[in-house]
Amino acid sequence: MGAFENLDPTAEAHWLTWCDWAEEQGLARPNDAAFTEARARVWEASDFVAVTVARHPEVFADLIASGALERPHDAVALTHALDSALREVSDEAGLQQALRQFRRREMIRIIWRDVAGRADLVATLEHLTTLADLCIQRALERLHAWTCAEFGTPRDETGRALRMVVLGMGKLGARELNLSSDIDLIYAYASKGETDGGPRPLSNEQFFLKLGQRLSQALGAQTVDGFVFRVDTRLRPFGESGPLAMSFNALEDYYQTQAREWERYAMIKARVIAADPRDAAHIMALLRPFVYRRYLDFGAIESLRDLKRMIAKELYRRGMDANIKLGPGGIREIEFIGQAFQLIRGGHEPDLQIRPIRSVLALLGRKQLMPVAAVRGLDDAYCFLRLVENRLQAYRDKQTHLLPDDEPGRRRLARSMGFADWPSFEVVLQSHRGHVQSQFDAVFAEPDTETVAESQELVSLWHSNLGGDGDAAVEASEELVALERAGFAQPAAVQEQLLRFRQSIERKGLSRRGHERLDRLMPQVLAVVAASEQPDLVLGRVLKVLEAVARRTSYLAMLGEQPEILSQLARLASMSPWFTERVCRQPLLLDEMIDSRRLYAPLRRADLEAELDALLLRIDTDDLEQQMERLRHFVQGNMLRVAAADLTEVIPLMIVSDYLTEIAEVSVRRVLELAFAHLERRHGRPTEILGEQTGFLVLGYGKLGGIELGYGSDLDLVFVHGTESPTAMTDGEKGISNEQFYSRLGQRIIHMMTTQTPAGVLYDVDMRLRPDGSRGLLVRSFKAFAAYQAEDAWTWEHQALIRARPVAGDPRMVEAFAALRREIICRDRDPVELAAEVREMRGKMRENLDKSGQGRFDLKQGRGGIADIEFMVQYAVLRWASAYPALADWTDNIRLLETLGRLALLPGQAAEELTATYKALRVAYHRSALQEQPKTVADSALQLERERVQALWHDLMGEPPP
């Protein structure tokens, strides 16, 4: 027997008992080497298997004969086997016996395959979970029918027959059930009502209470045949003192108003085990907002840190440091790490809303939320510790997590894990636990307050009276000295700011926890702000943010837990009020400041698409409100990253516009997809269209079309559809005309983009550049659009067409528009007449829009400004495109100027000079936007450049600028 020469005599006696029985039955005793070694391993590791086989030899004989010991787990086969075992069951006693006998057979098989190395950890946990699911489901089916026969059928107010919902929690919910685990269950039902068809009406609450009791008894009661699974229902609302089964409304009220923080942690793994499919979807949708906040919730770290302290204190009190689940570096710490990230980020990043801890860890690595090596170490530790847990519990089929302290027990565990002895096993075990504990300590470490500690004066300052009663004169003077010493230029004004802030906070009525978090945070705020280059300016802006988020104490926790966010906020606030104004309106933007690598690295198109996919993942296709909210978070967050990179000069101006334009394009395309899909579900797809997909086109004009969006730019859009027949209809059951479909599509797009939600608007949209302006149809057919451009459009509309391009829609429509645009732009035009019309339009625009005056120059509309350059470029394109079609290739001014220069169509170095001036004006325009200032500069600014633009206008257009 090699390594298994010195086996426990008692275990061997059990084996000989089975051998004697087999001989009496005329069965051959397996004696091949593989079986012999596996049998020896299992009998040493599991007294439960040895004893059970001796007592029920026929079960083991059947497992050998059927080949089940060597056959991998198969859920379908397991289902058929259980259904067969329950086929003759007609009462609760028979159900209990059949379930226990089935469980006994499967546990022998599972432990054999686990210990003998026939199944890995994943297969073992899945086999156990499937076994529990099936036992719960099949038991509930029969008990429900028997309870209905006795008391009648429970129904809701509409008469729908109801079934009980069983939620699996913990390891069962995550499909990670171990060998001798309790199963944590919560029972619920859809709504109040009563039974019918029984001897007398019974309330649904009474019916499901009885059914829950019967299910718990059927699974958990200890009988002569043992138990199926120990059932623990204490995770239900109000614990042991709460009702065993609750209605959905009662559950929702509890979780919204009374649930404790640890219950959020527990609910991460909740999974519906048995239910009507409609009720299953309903209850998970009900629970999701309780578990996953819309914002990053760093308050979860605080709560989990407190929970871990409580566990550690209890373990110490009970002398249970050897507990591999709850002890230092144990399984629970790994779960806490993963679930902390889930609680913090799960509402914001729906792909984290998953149950299995190993999948969570893998995602943390892929998202770079933890170092890949750390994640790999945690995963290895988890697998090792779960194997140890299984081997501990396999011995006596007992729920234990304590390492043995006796020599035989240690030797047995070490050998079952593949080690020669306890010391070699213990080295590996402690290595894994050490890694887990170090990672746990890193994630749950108290925030670094070293900066604050270095300035106790500022700590004392926040906790002082701030010029209040008592020894006011002395204290106020000391405060002013402390503020001046810290670097504030106007300490009296700063003191007054802090006092007003404190009074404002008091009026908001913060909770006790909110006050505690603010008191811990404010000394950090003062220290960080004092270290900035403009502390007086920065403090005012940062206090505005704190005032805006104070009622949402999770944001105070975030700033306290993540000092990096506070540092980034102070840094960017010193550069631009744009940041603080937006964060005040949308505190969710604080989330973007967690990772400086991400904050200063805006995303390009492919990554933007991927991020938006993740944000919209798991949102119901008809949940328009959530779709709109997520789209707004997407745009605002990515715009913030662009601005951060712009201000810190990580990216140049022209790239800023590229980034902002791509964000808008990705958003418009997704809005079109969502809006089209919604109408398609209702009415089917349009038929007889020009196009292969939607037959719809969204054209971007102006800055969007010219790839020149700024931070405050609205979107100039035009909608075109490809219906080729006026009588064409959609192909759905509730078909409507194509014209109606596309009109509703346009309206829904506008609604999704411009409706004010808690997160604001997606973009302001201007549709006035469509044919016939605001009086025209919202959506035109391509045929009508082409006819209008060819026959009725004004010159200014052809100017606008130069900067028009498809930003979303059907590829064939894109091709058709490109051909039409080129045809219109490349028409032969009279240059004198064209110049007169362009000058006239420019004059009207300046008259209505130019805000120059009182020593200020309007960067866009002033003489020699951005619009003058744009009009010159548009005139040049329309004048020469018939002879030089390359002028129709681009929509942006920079590349059009490059083309004009390359073709020598402008005099001398005019193209290069206009390009340089255009860039300089755009830089000033962007900076004004970020400073929340009017888009003007002093008259003395950029004077030479503006004079050169005016001179070039005179040379090109024949007259001075109007």
UniProtKB/TrEMBL annotation:
Adenylyl removase, as annotated region: 1-448
Residue span, PII-uridylyltransferase/Glutamine-synthetase adenylyltransferase domain: 306-444, 839-927
Name of the protein in question: Bifunctional glutamine synthetase adenylyltransferase/adenylyl-removing enzyme
GO function term, MF aspect, one: magnesium ion binding
Domain of life: Bacteria
Reactions performed catalytically: [glutamine synthetase]-O(4)-(5'-adenylyl)-L-tyrosine + phosphate = [glutamine synthetase]-L-tyrosine + ADP; [glutamine synthetase]-L-tyrosine + ATP = [glutamine synthetase]-O(4)-(5'-adenylyl)-L-tyrosine + diphosphate
EC number per UniProt: 2.7.7.89, 2.7.7.42
Recorded name of the encoding gene: glnE
Function: Involved in the regulation of glutamine synthetase GlnA, a key enzyme in the process to assimilate ammonia. When cellular nitrogen levels are high, the C-terminal adenylyl transferase (AT) inactivates GlnA by covalent transfer of an adenylyl group from ATP to specific tyrosine residue of GlnA, thus reducing its activity. Conversely, when nitrogen levels are low, the N-terminal adenylyl removase (AR) activates GlnA by removing the adenylyl group by phosphorolysis, increasing its activity.
GO biological process: regulation of glutamine family amino acid metabolic process
Matches recorded under PANTHER family: BIFUNCTIONAL GLUTAMINE SYNTHETASE ADENYLYLTRANSFERASE_ADENYLYL-REMOVING ENZYME (PTHR30621:SF0), GLUTAMINE SYNTHETASE ADENYLYLTRANSFERASE (PTHR30621)
Keywords: ATP-binding, Magnesium, Multifunctional enzyme, Nucleotide-binding, Nucleotidyltransferase, Transferase
Transmembrane segments: none
GO cellular component: cytosol
Cited Gene3D superfamilies: 1.20.120.1510, Beta Polymerase, domain 2, Glutamine synthase adenylyltransferase GlnE, Nucleotidyltransferases domain 2
Cofactor: Mg(2+)
Recorded family membership: Belongs to the GlnE family.
Protein species of origin: Thiocapsa imhoffii
Annotated region described as Adenylyl transferase, given as residue ranges: 459-962
Ranges for domain Glutamate-ammonia ligase adenylyltransferase repeated: 41-280, 567-818
